[in-house]
Each structure stands twice: as C-alpha cells, then as structure tokens.
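Can anyone check this?
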Amino acid sequence: MSEHFILAAIQAAPIYLDRQASVEKAICLIAEAGRKGASLAAFGETWIPGYAFFAFAESSAARWDAAQLYLDQAMTIPGPETDALCDAAKSADVDVVIGVVELESRTRGTVYCTNLVIGREGRILGCHRKLKPTMEERIAWGEGRGDDLTVWERSYARISTLACWEHQMVLPGYALMAQGTQVHVANWPGGEPATVPASPEALWSRQELLSRAFASQGACYVISVGGIITPDLVPEQFRSLAYSSGAGSLIIDPRGEIVARAPRGEETILTFEADPSVIRAAKTACDSAGHYSRPDIFDLRVHGVPVTSLVPVRGEG
C-alpha cells in the first residue's frame, strides 16, 4: 500500500420510499464519483429507499401507511437492484458502501438497516446489519446478528463500515480495529443539530464527535457521510410526518482531524486524496489492537470467537 487514493462521501437525498428511483439516482452518483477518481464512494444510512423518518411521528393512519410502503420498497440481497449497483460500481471502477433497507427474505415482514459493500470488480463483498437500532428506529428495523463485523482487504486499504450509533457502542468498532481497518465508512441518516440540546436531553447523533473518535482510536481515515431529508422530499401524503435534516459529511484523517467538510444541506460529492503514510504514522503512534492493547488483561470475543490479539491471553496458547 503505497499509492495515494481518493475517498468520496456522496452527500445526497434518495428518492424517498421509491426503491427503483433511488437505485437509478445512486447509479448516476456512483458514475460521478468514478469520474472524480474515487477508489471508495460512500452513501448515507438506509439511502435506498431512505431513512425511516415516519418512526419518529405520532401513531396515525399515515404512519402505518408509510411503514407498510417502507416494507414494500425494501431490497432483497442479492436481487435485481444489487445487480444494477454492482454493474455501476464495475463501470465506474469504484468500491461502494451504501446504506439500504434490507428485507428479511424468510418472513418478508422485517427489514434491517444494512450497509451493502460492493467491489469495483462488480460483486457484493459483504453486508453489515446494524446491531442495535436507536430509540424510535426500533419501530422500523430489526437487530443485526453481529456475525458480519468484517474488514475487507482492497488494493488501496482495508475497509470497514458501521452505521450511526454503532459508533457509540464501542465494542463493534474495536472488533474492526482489531482486524486492522485503515479506511472506515461511518454513515448517518442526516446531520446533527446546529446547537447542542439543553441538558438533560442526551439523544442526538453526535456524528462529528463519534466519527473523529473512531478515526483517532482506529488510526484510520473515516468517511462520515449523511443523507438529506426535508418534508418536500418525501411523498406528499407523508410530509406531515417528516422533518428537516441536512447532512454535514466529513472526511477525517487517522489523527482524528477533519480534512474535508461538505456544505450542510447541499447535494455534493466530497472528495479527499488519502495518503497511506499518514495511516502508518498514526498506527505507529497508537495501534489500539496491537502494541497499544493489553491482551493479558482484556479478551474480546465475537460470537465466542476471540478477536486476534498481539500476544495470547494467559492460559491460551
């Protein structure tokens, strides 16, 4: 890993509650990211067919109508939509991480907040289902199993992804750091409030803080990318349920410093040329799962399987 490479945060609104139209827009944006020379392009959380905004509204006939349409417009993986996205990634010669609403194929009654990872060779590399939907999101999404906390080896870097407040959970991030992630996609539904809510309110995205912390602790680049939502972007019959949130997408270097920032609320593709030497320097200073760990004290297991440590835990090996 010696060549510089370009990271892209695709800050844009989907076509809310319209799977096919959102896929078509994503294909155009992937092509644009490819023309910008991106090695990796990232979209916001559940970008296809949009974030579950209706879950935050009071119960009503409109909310139930939105919920059933959300289920109807969810994606199966694999399926015709993933085939189209894979073709787009191959044509653009770019890896893609995109948030999708994934339909449970067995019951067809549950959906997941899933990050779909597609390789530039035109195939699905893997998926990650969000482990714990936050507060009202639990109305819309099921929970992930955690058997997909994966780092993918690419020619330019090792890449990983988590959604939204999985970055608040701590252990999922460490599981990825222990696999040596070098570029991480942190995707969010929108942006955080311009001012901090008054105490004791404790629930807002804090995406800048959490993304910067991940970059610093993981000694990796982070693409922190959000979507855009306003009432006029959702179908007319659901506008009373919607709210406004303009993404504040960022690219953060392995020291935890912001190196690129997108204008709030504007559709754009934010790019940054990443330098592998910066990753190496940061990991030399602090390799959280290597020389800066204490595997003789701490032992993290995911589904009973130990995360690789620098040295064996006492009594093992």
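Reply from J.R.: I decoded it. The two ends are 31 Å apart (CA to CA).
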